[in-house]
Amino acid sequence: MSQSVANHPVLDPLLAPPFPQAALPMLRNPQLRTNVAHAIDVIQAKRFRLVNEKTDWQELRDAASAIRAESLRNLGFYLVQFETQCTAAGGTVHWASDATEARQIILDLLRQENASEVIKIKTMTSAEIQLNPFLQAAGVDVFETDLAEIILQLGDDEPSHIVVPALHVNRSQVREIFARRMGLDNLSDDPQALTAAARTYLRQKFLKIPTAISGANFLIAETGSVVVVESEGNGRMCLTLPRTMITIAGIEKVLPRFQDLEVMLQVLARSATGERMNPYTSLWTGVTPGDGPQSFHVVLLDNQRSSILARPVERQTLKCIRCAACMNTCPVYRQTGGHAYGSVYPGPIGAILTPQLMQMHHAQSLPFASSLCGACYEVCPVKINIPEVLIELRSQVVNQERHQFASIFDPMFLGMKIANLLFQKAWRFHLAQRLGRIGARLFTRKDGWIHSLPSLGAKWTQTRDLRALPSQTFHEWWAARAKEAR
Amino acid sequence: MRASLFITCYNDTLFPETGRAVVSLLERLGVTPDFHPKQTCCGQMHANTGFRGEAFSQAKRFVRLYQDAETIVVPSSSCVAMIRDQYPGLFDELGNDTLRREFAALLPRVYELSEFLIDRLGVEDVGATFPHRVTYHASCHGVRALHLGDRPYRLLSKVRSLTQAPLANVDRCCGFGGTFSIKNAEVSSAMLQVKLQDVVATGAEYCTALDNSCLMHLGGAMHRQYAGIMTIHLAEILASTEASPWEATK
User: Is the pTM above the cut of 0.95?
Assistant: First the structure.
């Protein structure tokens, strides 16, 4: 086990190494890269087919984007409306300004219930506030009930994707984890055998543990309802058997009207799992006597969301409905998987959300972890212009660097400042071209190519050659031609 | 018609043959090319690396230099995307009304090369001959920012003796991404390798694109790996004729 602890992925932006370094072990792990590429290619193909069968897909995107934008524009109003309606239906709403507050509220609720064990429906928000280790340390045993989350929990691993958290793990690895942790030496890697093992493990938890924690896909302001969509029925179990349900949700999850689900559920299922509709959609409103949990709490989490809301370009980040289409299509994520992002939110959305949740004091390498290819924006069902936000955040990181003395020793920073001076005057640019041509001769081999460069250039030549600089630039050719013509 | 060439900084420095090909192509089609000697860079590298102020000063420079041009032709899809998608935001934040007005008047006259040929000149058959098997790499900016669609394929389909070899996963990024290829060199290289497998599988002799930055990335790796596939800007294919084949003009 010591090996798996040493390799334990770090999903805390305060502790994670910068993306380029964190990506290296992933790039050197062919099994992981094969697992990730295979899994997202399968999801992508399903999504592509189902999106293409909708003749009004672009209109649905427009509608979904408009609904989310309206929620955010009047967020305060809709949150209070949700609180009023939820409370009227017998629920209790708690407001948490940050992770510390949210964790404490949940622990206090569990203590009131004398709960020493709790079952959970998959929730990324609880991972964001690092709820599980906090509860474990406080003496509460936490049991995940989503199949992927069980694999991760039993395998001492972390989620690498927000919809398919164990996407980086393959079937034989699942078999190994289950066999070891459930004491099933003869377990086969047949999917049916694996799910049967998980089912047996889970049934005991569902029947025994009367307290559950969930996230929320949506909160409905109009009715005070909470919506959870899932594929396995574990959520439905958590919503029927336990006495107490505690839901944690980011404040941005609210939708104005019940009818908005008509649009949101269509785009979410198709974008997330490539399904026309997800298998289980659960909606509940407060408490229903004699049916389901009789004690219901919602913890509304801010954790920097209101400060993101205050910024005009970045605000669109909060439209996200966590479908993960952006990471499934991302060519960077396809190579690295999710752990390289050092955050529970990986991929393109993580690259913009995580640094903002950290108030731009940590995870500053993430906005640069993109080739700006735009594939994420193309698939986003709520039309978040992720490249635009990435560029905005990059400029904030550069503005921090401008105030740091050490930046003048950073070859990239220095190079960009010098390049700017050169581009201001054509004569400077042309002089630099001539000097560059002379300098490049030192590195040019007989085959007319540069195979190795120093400093930042070495980052290029580690895998690519560079053609020798031509003896005549275009503008020199143009001037010579004009002279001849005269 | 006069067309002012914005050749772009890296074409000027690293790929002058692309610029020469654009000149010969335009002249063959009866367009008079023009070249403003003071041009440098559109500011894309600075903007995409987070240097907004620097990008703004280059964007401003571009507008001042080209405001009197009849049409501006740019043989680089990513630079056109910079001008269309990022200049408005830069000018809103850092510019003044005059600059915004000048830019608004200028923008409709900025064309990427394939747009200029098909949308402005209305030609698909430019009279080119290129007797080779060619695969087209659709650069991200060409596909998702400029929405070039089938324009490049239509141009290629009219080139005599040319065989098109379709590229699998054509809209997947090659991993260049400007300074991304330096800042995240290892991830960029991994993306590049995946793209190369698709390029090599086409069995093409040449890989073409409307953006030399992708081609520099692909070509550099293919040279390193002795892949035996050459890279060539689409302008050079279109400039190549039976009387004056590309190999002879290079």
Answer: yes
